[in-house]
Amino acid sequence: MKMANAVVYAISDSFEETAAAVAKAAAAQFPGNDIIIDRAHCVKDRMAIDIIIEATKHLNSLLIIDMLQKDLKDYLIHRAMENNIAYFDIMEQAVGTLSNIVNQKPNLVPEATYKLNEEYFDRMEAIDFAVKYDDCKDPRAIKKADLVLIGISRTSKTPLSIYLATKNIKVANIPLVPEVVPPRELFEIPRDRIFGLITSKQKLNTIRMERLKAHGLNDEANYASFERIDYELKYADQIMKDIGCVILNVADKAIEETASTILQILKEVNASEKIRLQF
Amino acid sequence: MKMANAVVYAISDSFEETAAAVAKAAAAQFPGNDIIIDRAHCVKDRMAIDIIIEATKHLNSLLIIDMLQKDLKDYLIHRAMENNIAYFDIMEQAVGTLSNIVNQKPNLVPEATYKLNEEYFDRMEAIDFAVKYDDCKDPRAIKKADLVLIGISRTSKTPLSIYLATKNIKVANIPLVPEVVPPRELFEIPRDRIFGLITSKQKLNTIRMERLKAHGLNDEANYASFERIDYELKYADQIMKDIGCVILNVADKAIEETASTILQILKEVNASEKIRLQF
Questions:
Q1: At CB < 8 A and 24+ separation, what contacts does B209-217 make?
Q2: So what's the ipTM on this one?
Q3: CATH for A118-277?
Q4: So what's the architecture of A6-113 in CATH?
């Protein structure tokens, strides 16, 4: 087994993922290396810090620090310097600069960002909505939703709905199946609230084959055939053109990327305060 | 209307949320100020940068930059300096230090972290699983799940399941209702895969009242009464003790915090590689 070249340790005194995100993004810039990413959330005492220092001091380590409790952070930095461990504080410069700009000392309370406020409950409601109305369980959802996703099976409607729900957007998703008439509500709402998802035949074939394998459904192999996929995609294309909605190709796109495109389009066509706030 | 004291602008050439997370966390340290947080994702050209500079140059602004495309970033920094706009590059120091540690130049490709790999498809499957088996739609899910959440109505089972799914964990959630016998599968799986969620009576009352209001269900007001809540919580407590599972109080906890606690416990009791990798 090859030894790891480096360890990047993301350390936070809250449950924030920011340090870990920086760690991952930085590590991704050095392909071919075996870089271990480890993380500690909610670091609340010196013992936790001592354990991290012990675990990293004999390795090629970089500590990425997202901590606001001053005493603890000072202790961590002191121990890192003592052991020649490289470190980087991701918040310090942003907080310091902002402190100058607003001419106020920072709070330095790690919990400051995690209030259970109205926005938080709205987000929970949006997630409940997406789950409850997944896969067109009730076409009345179409009129209640902030936006509606349509597409054939395995065009990532569900995960995209959920991801958008975490941005406080209520999403209904409607599967398009040639054998099933689409709900009439789809034709009764503004078309700029509807997004059609398509993808490549090759991608759909791969994803559907995987799914069949996972479910041991060899007898439904038609589901993954190129003929069936081609038939379904043509059917979906016709429905989407009839509606006149935006069509997005999700092949080779991450959910986050498609979501970002959708939110950008909504922001442009829709000056609604709600959508505006997601940015 | 009070004028905003400051604008924090999170700028990324990918669809990453890291710069926005730093912006939010920094702004949260200065309560009482009216700090606008704005963001631009997928900034791909100089025109997009010029628009940002125009929008911020006459304000008290801080640019938080998460960009890897060197030419574009250089242009942005040049324009920021020219207009005396404060800026902070969140990736530079992490990438630079790691470059020294692994003795290799960085790739500087923003897409480096967003491959549609196996982990990504697993995550999509986990989200599908959480949605499909939400609210005990099929008790067979209990045996297929990586972990099972139990609790009475409005203890955040669904959003927590979804959040854990985004960490590649397959979660089934089972509502506890005094009038319904819990599925026998709950007593047939290892108890360390089950987590019981409870919360405070006050919190439940508030959340359930909100829900009744949102659904116009005044005739079901018993749902939010303290007597009913007390009865349900005692029932749930008995079931959780019978099972012998970990019980977590989610009152005043954000979903991310409860999820972090669950993952930490699983990591300790379970050396499984899968759970390990979520950290």
A1: B210/A121, B211/B154, B214/A125
A2: 0.70
A3: 3.40.50
A4: 3-Layer(aba) Sandwich (3.40)
